Amino acid sequence: MKIPRNDTTVEVRNLKMYFPITRGLLQRKVGDVKAVDDISFEIENHETLGLVGESGCGKTTTGRCILRLYRPTSGHIVFEGKDISSMPERKLKPLRSSMGAIFQDPYSSLNPRQTAGSLVGDPLKVHHLASGNELNERVEVLFRLVGLDPGMMDRVPHEFSGGQRQRIGLARALACRPSLVICDEPISALDVSIQAQIINLLEELQEKVGLTYLFIAHDLAVVQHISNRIAVMYLGRIVEITGSDELYENPLHPYTRALLSAVPIPDPHTEKDRMRIVLKGEVPSPVNPPPGCHFHPRCQLAMADCSVERPPLRDVGGEHLVACFRV
Amino acid sequence: MPLTRSSEVHSNEKVVNHMAVLLDVQDLKTYFNTDYGLVKAVDGVSYHIDDGEIVGLVGESGCGKSVSILSVMQLIQIPPGEIVNGKVIFDGQDILQYDAKGAEMRAIRGGKIAMIFQEPMTSLNPVLTICRQMTETLELHLEMDRQSARERAIELLKMVGVPDAASRVDDYPHQFSGGMRQRVMIAMALSCNPMIIIADEPTTAVDVTTQAQLLELMSDLVTRLNTSLVVVTHNLGVIARYAQRIYVMYAGRIVESGLSEEIFDKPRHPYTIGLLNSVPRLGEKHGTRKLVPIYGMPPDLIDMPPTCAFLPRCTCKIEKCHKEPWPALRPVGDRHYVSCYVDMQEKQ
């Protein structure tokens, strides 16, 4: 599992993404939604980094910043050695072919009026990578790669089931042979019996093509299954990063512990003996987050200093990083 | 459920410590007439709910789990829907005989049997205050006056853990978060001291820590108030902790039912086994187990084969499966029933 340090696909340093809130006729700025608030991490070559957290914690925004669908407020994103955080669109385009993305909802992320074949072939045309017969051949190869029948190339999305649509989305993401694929909740909209098909496909493709994944999801069991390392986010900040087995066996941040204990396990015996940490209250608004550690109002271990200063993300040994004063 | 009855009579012990059956659904069939053909959403489903029991109804989307409970409440739109067969015995009466809009059915709906729906934002009226929506039920079913209904509403909100209930009762649904709205739904369901609460995917729209809060709250309340609870869900994990008995549905029928431990420890239907093998479990070492998906897709309910509907996806099929009709539920253990020709225990 240990991968040499120098092979980093993505390095994120002090990334901040604030969305302004404007009011009135003159669109006066009255505040910021601090969707991502100063986070740093890296994704090694050929690894899967899981990004978990509850809705609104900034995990999707992080993914979109790495894809440079957003221009970050501040901070650096280094992709394959190049700082892309403020790169102009013109220079960015050639790099885009090295990044792929799969989205949550296979019903709304595919154009309903395009055929499956043209959906998959479009990225190749945009990047002038193939045309004519070669284009057709490459689309066929891609269809086979994700387990679809190339005979279905002329069908439109509504003729496919949810699982098949997600396969089209995956083929499209892989069309330009990217090195990095951002998977944003790729299985949450699918039926339980179909989810495993897509998870297995993602794993097989990683082995076959040597992909690097950023796997964004709220389902910890799925994330733990697929990821080498996991980063846990809470209200725009990363609170803990470590190997996925270590995270389960030795969770250090109080939020991670609560999150792990809240995940239901399909086994009544384990469930009955499990201690469940039920968090009080709700996630505060990212417009006006609490001072100091964002988690302190709901934390059982919180002391005076927690509400004053932000705890830095520090290594407690064995590449286990945690942002908490109490551990 | 005739099968259950006979087995309960046979084993005397069970009859003694067995609780009274509250709701008994027998051979329910609900079909929908669509432009594409007749959709047999629920096709011969029988289940029962005992006094004070927590029952889980599990299945994937489109398997008919929601329709089967909406039929019980007579909330199916007719047409296109039609309840073509079945009995729903509640309190000694077949409530399917009641007029869907009549006074008897209205007294049951929300009064004796309450429901909690999946999406709290769409099931609460956005233009009425929480107070108005809660007191309406109380005034109708319990004939309370405005003032005492309001006090009861505040009391109920406190019970489900809405902070500052006395002032929040005058807020509108949009001023509440998703988890809080679902708490309001729970409070509304509890308001008339129902005998049964049916929760249709109660935690699907909320986050995992909120889900934990809501599930603990619901199981705590129903145990305290001795109410029966039916949880309809697609998530096996959600019911593993709480349900005493589980029904597994596939393509409009129940394929397996039994006590929670039995279903999880000794699943006997290939579909149940498939479902359990296809979900990742928290705490398994990374890379130790490859998930075993169920291949293929759920069947089209319009064009159903006369044979077992799981046959095209089944990995354990035998010749008999191709020739015989869909197998009936047969007993395989203590209150454990399975609809399959193959003896999976022998196979394993």
Description:
The complex is a heterodimer of chains A (327) and B (348). By secondary structure, chain A is an alpha/beta fold. Chain A has two domains: 8-98 and 178-322, P-loop containing nucleotide triphosphate hydrolases (Rossmann fold); 113-174, no CATH class. Chain A is built from ten helices and twelve strands. In chain A, the strands form two sheets. Chain A has an eight-stranded mixed beta sheet, with helices on both faces. In chain A, strands 2-1-4-5 form a four-stranded antiparallel beta sheet. In chain A, a hairpin with a 2-residue loop joins β9 (229-234) and β10. Chain B is an alpha/beta fold. Chain B has a single domain, classed as 3-Layer(aba) Sandwich (Rossmann fold). Chain B contains 15 helices and twelve strands. Chain B has an eight-stranded mixed beta sheet with strand order 6-7-8-3-9-10-12-11, sandwiched between helices. In chain B, β1 (21-34) and β2 (37-50) form a beta hairpin. The interface between A and B is large, with 49 and 45 residues.
Q: What descriptors fit this protein?
A:
heterodimer; A: 327 residues; alpha/beta; Rossmann fold; eight-stranded mixed beta sheet; four-stranded antiparallel beta sheet; 10 helices; 31% helix; disordered N terminus; B: 348 residues; 15 helices; 12 strands; 36% helix; 23% strand
Structure annotation, total helices of chain A? 10
Query: Strand pairing plus helix content of chain B: what structural class?
Result: alpha/beta
Q: How many β-strand runs of chain B?
A: 12
What percent strand of chain A?
A: 15-25%
Major sheet of chain B: size, sense and barrel closure?
A: 8 strands, mixed
CATH fold label of chain B: Rossmann fold
Predict the CATH topology of the largest domain in chain A: Rossmann fold
Arithmetic mean pLDDT of chain A: 89
Show unreliable segments of chain A. 1-5
Structural class by helix and strand composition of chain A: alpha/beta
Number of helical stretches of at least 4 residues of chain B: 15
